[in-house]
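I'm curious: can you give me some protein's one-letter sequence along with its backbone structure tokens because I've never seen that pairing?
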Amino acid sequence: MYNKELEALFQRYRKNELTEEELHRLFEWLQSHEHDEQLKAMLDNAWDEQPAVAAGAGSKPPVHPMKRWWPRMAAAILALCMGAGAYFLWRPHPAPVLAWHTESNAAGQSPRRVELPDHSTVWLNAGTTLQYQQDFAGRERLVKLEGEACFDVASDPAKPFAVAAGAVQARVLGTRFNVSNYPADRRIAVTVLSGKVAVQDAPANQPVTLGPLQEATYQGAAFTVSTVEDSSNVAWTRGELVFHKTPLQQVVRILQTRFNKKIVVNAALQQCVFYGDFTQETLPEILSSMAIALNGHAREANGTWYIDGKGCF
């Protein structure tokens, strides 16, 4: 039975006008063997429509120089089209474009939980953006991070999990770890809670492997590895703020991101460090505690908080 849709698809194919869906439909018909005779006829007609070679004066009518070989060529093409590789022989198929999905958590928001396509879970801190390939179609489960996130990775030895955070990439098979990549900090920190993580700043460089309760800090184009006492680095996933000998500039950045408020510290306090644990305290309460610890005072003016003091103890 003559198939009009097949004819239309074939003609659109010759003009390179098929959509991806239409191309799949044409390929299905080629594999079905239901329209072999019609396909051969269309191939013959397509050949007949090609320009002929003009003959000289007084010679025979114009002819196609390869016409006598065409039946065998058409049969060969038809046979190829029936095979599993026909789709690629008929038309080069472009590599699929991997779509990126974006999850974000704005400044001033509580930590947000996200489940990835492989059932790994991620907690996003405030002021964080996470991008990942939908369905993880590539050779690895790649995500891109700006901000801070805590990952609990589902194990899949055949497809490593990788986090690209600025100049640093962390690769794992299945583990729990935290990555902090806030541009304002001018540092990238990877903290491992369980399992192992390999961190690297360039493909040519030797990766640094971290075990449980180890942290790699990338600053000044170099890694520094240290041991952390506990999992306080991810206390933020529980809504807590834990500072243990934390540089004051980093404390300020964390508070600004957490509460979405501008905080200014005078120059005399810039090099101080701060200790403190907070759960449900408000920003004024936290800044008041900081000011007391720094032998200074905190004040608010026109929506901006200021901490002044004479210097560290």
Observations:
- The longest strand covers residues 141-152.
- Residues 63-93 have pLDDT under 50 and may be disordered.
- The first helix runs from residue 4 to 14.
- The chain has three domains: 4-90, 100-232, 240-309.
